[in-house]
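To whoever is on call:

I kicked off a structure prediction for a single chain this morning and the downstream step that reads the tokens threw a length-mismatch warning. I double-checked the sequence; it's 106 residues and nothing unusual in it as far as I can see. Pasting both halves so you can look.
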Amino acid sequence: MSLLERVRDFAIQHLRKRSVVFMARAACWVALVGLAVMCASIIRPMPLLIIFAMSVGQVIGIIAVLLYLVAILADVIRGEDHSPDAPGPARKFRASDATNAPTNAP
């Protein structure tokens, strides 16, 4: 087993423990931190603060986007066979709810 396979297996095992909602919320919080860093350079425009905001703020923003993409990927990988109590019901569980829903036809 190569190092890349071990890292991939560890990442997949770790991501399965996290919910999609948790990762999406983490992406939002990280994006807010990046936004605060960028706003600091606008509120107090000093050369070093602007350089810091443009470099570190961009890295923080990239991390937020990657977290959001990982949340999307985890949701796609989870697919239709997750439990009904997981956030965002899967299609096969939605179909059973739609057949039991009352209709408003006269």
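Update from on-call: the warning came from a stale cache, not from the record. Cleared it. Sanity check on the structure: Residues 82 and 90 are 7 Å apart (CA to CA).
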